[in-house]
Amino acid sequence: MKLLSGQRAYVWQMLSGFYLALFFPYIAWLSLNQPIQSFNQLTALLSSPAVFIPGLVAIALGLIHAWVGLRDVLIDYAPRRYLMGLLFSMALVWLFVIANLAWLTTQLIGAHL
Amino acid sequence: MIPRTDKRPVNLSLWHFHFPLNALVSISHRISGVVLILTLFIWLFVLNQMLFVPDDFTKHQAWLSSIGGQIFLSLFWLALWFHWLAGVRHLLIEFCLNSRIKTALRTHQAALGSFIFWGLGALLILARIWL
């Protein structure tokens, strides 16, 4: 966890913030211009290189961004006696989310092939 | 949180504090971030359902068009729009090379402008979802 603490956490937060600040207008533009009517259209869009690669980077950086942000919120507002328990629970939830996203990615690639 | 040594109960009424607008932008940025994390779980649930049962795609689309789905979409896009806007302002304050722009972005007027700009965007988002 040293990778995401202290000044490194701040650097990751800013780097991911920069990327996501560019990525979300792109996604908003896509969602306005690409009406999705069927499951095949959705998988085709999500697995196209223009969405898949920047999307994977955005998911990875988004998870880091959210982890650092939520960690800061908990450190600032959670009662100290519950803090370690809450951070540990959050880490477990995050591991579950990462595993689920990895599974979804494999399913998405499988559905499109 | 700073540990307290005395045992007296503290009942702070937040309504009696008058926060500067910059503080309100900052706390709203955090609240919108927490809302986005909560909506992430609903998105994950919907995506899992879609990939588990592709034939039910129209059912999920129908849910997103229902009142519950539209409330969820409104919450997600409004939180994302605010979080993005406040985040970009924060990045510019931190990294903009022009000191005049940096100073201008820190002012009360810039914070007010952020809320007004968010409100205008929010109206467009709500019109897009509900009309």
**Percentage of helical residues of chain A?**
over 70%
The SSE order of chain B reads HHHHH
Mean pLDDT of chain A: 88
Largest sheet of chain A: none
Low-confidence stretches of chain A: none
Helix/strand-derived class of chain B? mainly alpha
Helix content of chain B: over 70%
Total number of strands of chain A? 0
Mean pLDDT across residues of chain B: 88
β-strand percent of chain A reads under 5%
Overview of the molecule:
The complex is a heterodimer of chains A (113) and B (131). Chain A is 87% helix and 0% strand. Chain A has helices at 6-33, 39-46, 49-77, 80-112. Chain A starts with 5 loop residues before the first helix and ends with a helix. Chain B has 131 residues and is mainly α. Chain B has 5 helices and no strands. Chain B has helices at residues 21-52, 57-65, 67-95, 99-105, 108-130. The interface between A and B is medium-sized, with 27 and 25 residues.
Question: Gist?
Answer:
Chain A is an all-alpha fold and 113 residues long. Chain A has four helices and no strands.
Keywords:
A: 113 residues, 4 helices, 0% strand, elongated, B: 131 residues, extended
Please render the helix and strand layout as text:
The complex is a heterodimer of chains A (113) and B (131).
Chain A: H1 6-33, H2 39-46, H3 49-77, H4 80-112
Chain B: H1 21-52, H2 57-65, H3 67-95, H4 99-105, H5 108-130
